[in-house]
Structures are given as structure tokens and as C-alpha cells.
Amino acid sequence: MCGIVALYAYNDSSANIDRTELLQIRDHMTTRGPDGSGDWISADGRVGFGHRRLSIIDLTESGAQPMQSEDGRYVITFNGEIYNYKQLRADLEKRNYRFRSNSDTEVLLHLYDLKGPDMVTALRGMYAFAIWDQKKQGVFIARDPFGIKPLYIADDGSTLRVASQVKALLAGGHIDTSPEPAGHVGFFLWGHVPEPYTLYKGIRALPAGSWLWIDRNGRRQNLYFSLSNEFRNAEQCSASVTAADVQQAFREALLDSVRHHLIADVPVGLFLSAGLDSTALTALASELTSSRLNTVTLGFKEFIGTENDEVPLAELVAQNYNTIHRTIRVEQNDFQADFTSLIDAMDQPTVDGVNSFFVCKAAALAGLKVAISGLGADELFGGYSNFTEIPKVVSWCSPLNYLPGIGKGFRIVSAPILRQFVSPKYAGIFEYGSNFEGAYLLRRGMYMPWELPEMIDAEMVKQGWKELQTIAAIKVSIDGIKNDRFKVSAMEMNWYMRNQLLRDVDWASMAHSLEVRVPFVDVQLLKSLAPIMKSDNKSYKLAMAKSPVQALPDAVLYRRKTGFSIPVKEWIMNEDKLKAENGSRSWAKHIYSNLVPK
């Protein structure tokens, strides 16, 4: 895991690359890559690449970046891991490609030479990279299918700037920092900034599952992977399977994903909670390694003796699978002491990520450079209540589609009353609950559209809401999907998981120079299991949890789902100015005031 930067002065009138700017961007990401750094500038001064290295595969200098091909035609700066790089290398060697390193980076260089942009369809992993093609005089940029790794672009019409973090691009200067209404409105709408937007007009995210080619003649962008397409394809599969077949398919697919995610030249540990996701991963990983696994559990002083305390059951699981286990407890004083560091590390405002920040810190304190997380299981296997509740809401409210205006009228009348008892957003139940896209916004939204002028300037709200086209955008992400369960899964993966969970894990882990891997967020796993998970509203979490040979303890297997919680509400409620609203809304305002320039 690393930090990358690429600068390309593609316009004939552009000034040459400024190495000082290149290094300022690169070194703002030092915690992403404390093990080494490098930079490269083309002979004509028009292209510059930089890299901060966290050494995971091929720890020698031969794996250092930016890396050039042997003939000098290609240069790459790469962030991520290619889990099938050994298989790809073996195929490339059969085609007479020669290797000077044992890194997955060099595999990418040769694969691009062989396949060009089509290379991305062969990759299994998490990645964001840029490749300079000297012969074609252009830059190829790509991001992994799920958007596990971030990649941000600033293009002023003269020079292209690319980096792993928004704040890194800002550190280099030369960025249009005018407020982007869609980013600011999106934050209060969702509790995170939805892609491709940021808080700044001059910076956009490269969409997940897409690549970009840019040269002096223009640009081409292509979306090579779509979650919605995968679910539509799964619906077309008509194979009938027995319960035993399902269980065997789960075991084989999960073992395959975990096996790939264990590949590294340094020890790989696991985040271990009391939930099914991390405990199942621990059990499966223990089958695949002859050495004892390292596991880490994060606990909170405020939760001792309550059902929210993950520690006792996590320690029981660690004992069952004979892991080298470490428990680290955090309390309010730790939160206050680390608040400034947390805000500095937070690349874009988000109401989540505090838990990730502290569990990553715990893993780093335990001496780990790589940790496996259970992120993504709920979105894939139907673990959230949204999988049952959203279809119910839509079923109840859909008759209102024949009575336009009724929902809005109810909201206007009821909102002042309901806000005294529940979240004000539920005044919109009849206005938004009659279709999946509206019901999803109602469930996942932080503030509803009519509340936004209370947060930020009304004109910014108007512009941002118009640009976002939120309801239409959600609808696009489920377009053509008939299965209710797949609709919810597609929305959760495209919106909540991508824009919040994955992004938060990235900045939180990189703040502690820790690589986090997510075996449940894997294209091959999705392709293998989606066709057999078509039962509406059914959770397949138990099938996942029963996949290990050595069964999970019953206390874990049949524990009531609580989710991984953190007492942020209790920590921030001590400030009088935050007592007026519920914890998440208060926290949203607090984060915004700390991250957004005045």
C-alpha cells in the first residue's frame, strides 16, 4: 500500500513539471509509505511521477517505484496489491517477458505492454495506478472495480494532476479550491462526500472500475466494471442448487478469496470482533496457514459489561483458533488526545471512520503492516435490516405513486411535529418511500433535502442538489435489476460501502501505515456467489459463518447482531453545543466545522 502522484503537462502551452510541487504532493502522503520514496521526471520535463512506499511484496529495492520497464518505454506508480500476480507472471513468462523483480508492480508493466487498457480485466486486487507510455506519449490511469483504493484527479485544461489523497493535491497548490456545491450538499445528505465529487471544484475522483487515457490530443474514459451489471447477470443464471450445494459453494469461494488475500512477504493479521464476519475470516485463515495468526480486538471502556463489548467473545474466538491475540481498549481521553490527528488524517469529511482509525492504530501498535477486515460482508450477504425493511416500505408506500403530491403535503405538515419525537427525516416516508431509490435515501441519508438550507447556504443547496441528481443517480445504480435483494445490495455497495466504508478504512489505515485488505470485497467472490443468492430478503450470513471446518463458537454463531459500535455520541455529548441533536447529526456538524475552510 502506498501513496502515488502523477503530473502531466499535456498542453503545448503548459509549463514543465515543477519537481517541488511533485515532492510536496508526494510527501504529504508519507504515512501511506514510510518505507521509501521515489520520483521520476521525463527528459522533456512534461511528465512527473512520485511514490511513497509501504513494502508488502518484494521488500527489496528492486520493487521500488516509480518503476521503469527494461526498455524505458513505460513508467508506473502504483498503489495497491494484485493478489493474482503470481499467476499473471507465470503466463507472461511463457510469453517471453523477463522480470527483474519479484513485485506485482512489474507484472502490471508487462501486462500493460501485452494488453493495453484491457489489462484491468485480468487483475484481481485493489489498485490505483498511472502508467506513462513513452511511445504513445500518454498516461493510462486505472482504479479497481469496487473503488477500494482512492484516486483523485485535478485537470485545469493544461496540466493533469493525480494523487491518492485530496489533501495531497491541495498541498501542491495549483488547485481550484472553489467550493463544489455537490460535495458540500452531499456531505450533509449522506454523512460523506459522494463520488466523483469532493469539496473542491478542481478535484474529482476517478470513478471506481474505470480507466482514463490522456494525451495531447484529448482523453478517453471507460467504465470497465459495473456492480449493477454483475447483479443483472446473476439474475439470468437459472441453476437450481440444494442447501448443501450452497454451503459448499460458499466454503470454496470464501477459502479462495481468503487465500488470495493472505499473499504477502510480511505477516498478515486480522481485525477480530465478536461478529460473524471477522470470526469467520479468522477461522478460514487459520485453515490456510501453518503459523499462528495475529489478531487484534478494539474495545471501549464505556462498553465493559454491556452487549456492545466485543472483547470477551473475540478473545474466546482467538483462543479457539490459537491466534496471537492483542486487545486494546480506548476511552474518551484517547479520543480527545487523538482528535487533531484524526482530523488531519481524514481526507474528506465523514461521520464514520473513528472506529477504523482506532482499530488501525491498535493493529499498528501490535506490530502489523497488513490486516484483514470483514468489511463488505453485510452488503454482499444481506446482513443489514435494510434488506428487509426497504422492500417493506416500498410495498406499503407504492400505492402513493398514484396520488402525486400527497407525500410532500404530509411531510410539510408533519415535519415540525415529528421532529419532537423521532428523526425529522421520517416526515418524508410517504414522499420518498414509494420506490427503492427514495426509500434508500430515507434510510441512509443523514439530512433530507428539505433540511439542507438549515446547514449551508440556500443557493449552494440549490446548485448542489441539482448537480447531484441524487434520486436519479441511485436509480441508475439499480437500473434493470428485478430482484429486491440485489437492488438493496447494489445500493449498499455503490453508495454506502464505496463512498464511506472503503474510503474511511483507506485514510484511517494509511494514517497508521497499515494496509487493510477486504476479502469480502472481491470480484471473483461476487461472481461465484451472486447467482446462488437470489432469494429475496434472505440473509446468507449464516452460510458464510458456517463455511469454516472448525465451527465458530455457538455464542458467536447465534449472537444477536449489534454491529461494531463506538461511543462517539457519549464522547462528544460532553460539549454543550452538541447536545441539541442526536449523536450522528451533531458529529456531522462538528466534523464539517473542523474540516471545511472558513
Description of the molecule:
With 598 residues, the protein is of the alpha+beta class. The protein has three domains: 2-225, Aminohydrolase, N-terminal nucleophile (Ntn) domain (Glutamine Phosphoribosylpyrophosphate, subunit 1, domain 1); 237-381 and 503-594, Rossmann fold, CATH 3.40.50; 386-486, no CATH class. Helix 13 crosses helix 16. It starts with a strand and ends with a helix.
Q: Give the biggest sheet.
A: 6 strands, antiparallel
User: Please, how many helices?
Assistant: 24
pLDDT averaged residue by residue:
91
Identify low-pLDDT runs.
Answer: none
Shape: globular
Within the CATH hierarchy, at the fold level, what is the topology of the largest domain? Rossmann fold
Rg over CA atoms: 24 Å
Fraction of residues in H or I helices: 40-55%
The CATH homology group name of the largest domain: HUPs
Span between N and C termini? 33 Å
Q: Please identify, by name, the CATH architecture of the largest domain.
A: 3-Layer(aba) Sandwich
By secondary-structure content and strand pairing, the structural class works out as alpha+beta
Number of strands: 17
β-strand amount: 15-25%
CATH top level assignment of the largest domain:
Alpha Beta
User: How many separate domains make up the residues?
Assistant: 3
Order of strands, widest sheet: 2-3-1-9-8-10
Q: How are the SSEs placed, and which strands pair?
A:
Layout: E1 2-9, H1 19-27, E2 36-41, E3 47-53, E4 67-68, E5 74-82, H2 85-94, H3 104-115, E6 125-133, E7 138-143, E8 152-155, E9 159-163, H4 166-171, H5 181-190, E10 204-205, E11 210-215, E12 218-223, H6 227-236, H7 243-261, E13 268-271, H8 276-288, E14 294-300, H9 311-320, E15 324-330, H10 332-345, H11 354-365, E16 370-372, H12 377-381, H13 386-397, H14 406-418, H15 429-432, H16 436-444, H17 458-468, H18 470-477, H19 484-510, E17 515-517, H20 523-529, H21 541-545, H22 554-557, H23 568-572, H24 583-595
Parallel strand pairs: 13-14, 13-16, 14-15, 16-17
Antiparallel strand pairs: 1-3, 1-9, 2-3, 4-5, 5-6, 6-7, 7-11, 8-9, 8-10, 11-12
Helix pairs in contact: 2-3, 5-17, 7-8, 7-20, 11-19, 13-16, 13-19, 16-18, 16-19
